[in-house]
Amino acid sequence: MMMRRTSAAVVLSVLPIFAARAQLGSFNPPPGPQGTFVIRGGHIVTVSGADIPNGSVVISGGKITAVGANVQAPPSAQVIDASGLMVYPGMIETGSSVGLSEIGQGVVATVDIQEVGSFNPNAQAFYGIDPHSAHVGVARVVGITTVVSRPTGGIMSGQATLINLAGDTPPKMAVVPRVALVIELPRSGFGGRGFARAIAQQGNPADANRTRQLQMDSLRSMLRDADAYGKAQAAYAKDKTLPRPAHDVVLESMLPALSGQMPVIFPADRVNDIRDAVTFAEEMHLKPIIMGGQEAPAIAPFLKQHNVPVVVTAVMHLPSREDDPYDVNYTIPAKLAAAGVTFAISTGDRGSEIRTLPYNAGMAAANGLSKTDALKSVTLWPAQIFGVGDKMGSIEVGKMANVVVTTGDILEAKTDTKYLFIDGRLVPLDTKHTQLNAMFKDRP
């Protein structure tokens, strides 16, 4: 009996501790319901058009339903006073693996960014997303509302997904579950990857190049098999008297890319690799997006000629060559803009540092890129590059209500976020950081 009383007392005494730990089980408080809101009196930066110094944005049913200086809000709308504040569209990070990689060093079980083998076109990042990743909350409090999360590794890594940073399941987060195929071409001059690179390091460039060629031949063969498979399926759909082709999930997963409905991300930084990716994409009739682009300015006319967009991930990187100027990477976006190349800015980080996205764009703005283009590079342009420019990226009627209300310039480190909407839902601004601060700030 004494044992039971003691146990009960212990349980009661630790309940508050367990409750606190339960609250820390997810660092991303769920958003509220879709409602009707009016953000009134703020400086609205529409991105796609002129700013509205003292205007209102009406949100209803998850969409932006009205924008302007003289907007009549519904009587039932919840009013948010944005006097003295700035109103922006949510930012879009396009080079991450958010939800697939939690702790990159030391905790292997929290990293799920690649599959075994070199060819995995049917691997979909969407199914691996962890909605409760701690990276979600700290990203959205700086104004990031949407990310492209992509798999890595191998040659054909899989399919990236476009998600909003709100929701407790992947389907609730997904904007485009399968937004792009990821192909990492074996690198020219570096002996490819894996075994081929090891050979190159041992001083056998001929063997390395031979291995790279075999990898490229395998990739071409796989894409051509998928094209033939798609034609066979289309023929059978028109004429049921033909032999029914065997269903193949691997080949079928490549059909949207081969038909031009889905773009293909090619990670590439060096001039030769960028040129090879564009040439290969044209050969196989793919729509390429260059991810990385560290040396893209050196090949900018070629990219402009072929209308290939670039997701720049190296803005905050250190110079890679000892004779490079200190600002060689800071000025990449400005040089691409001057050459007329379509681009977006990304951190290129798997997850923990995507919160620095606005400061990457801000650094580009401090080194030759106009502030207008810097903002577009993390809002409207990434949306357009990934085919959702009609849904998000600017404050326009009919677009998804991903809206951020801040105390100042969203690209400045000193700016705070006051209100955040994702899909028309008001999102709490608590994060792992604020929760840990609350737990320990009064510790003696």
Question: Any chance you could write out the topology, listing elements then pairs?
Answer:
Blueprint: H1 2-23, E1 36-44, E2 52-60, E3 63-68, E4 78-81, E5 86-89, E6 91-96, H2 134-140, E7 144-149, E8 156-164, H3 170-173, E9 174-183, H4 195-201, H5 205-238, H6 249-252, H7 255-258, E10 264-268, H8 271-283, E11 288-292, H9 300-305, E12 310-312, H10 332-339, E13 343-345, H11 357-365, H12 371-376, H13 380-385, E14 403-406, E15 417-422, E16 425-426, H14 432-440
Parallel strand pairs: 1-4, 1-5, 6-7, 9-10, 10-11, 11-12, 12-13
Antiparallel strand pairs: 1-2, 2-3, 5-14, 7-8, 8-9, 14-15, 15-16
Describe the structure.
This protein has helices at residues 2-23, 134-140, 170-173, 195-201, 205-238, 249-252, 255-258, 271-283, 300-305, 332-339, 357-365, 371-376, 380-385, 432-440; strands spanning 36-44, 52-60, 63-68, 78-81, 86-89, 91-96, 144-149, 156-164, 174-183, 264-268, 288-292, 310-312, 343-345, 403-406, 417-422, 425-426. It is of the alpha/beta class and 444 residues long. It has a domain at 91-391: Alpha-Beta Barrel (TIM Barrel), CATH 3.20.20.140. Strands 1, 2, 3, 4, 5, 14, 15 and 16 form an eight-stranded mixed beta sheet that branches. It has an eight-stranded mixed beta sheet with strand order 6-7-8-9-10-11-12-13. Strand 2 (52-60) and strand 3 (63-68) form a beta hairpin.
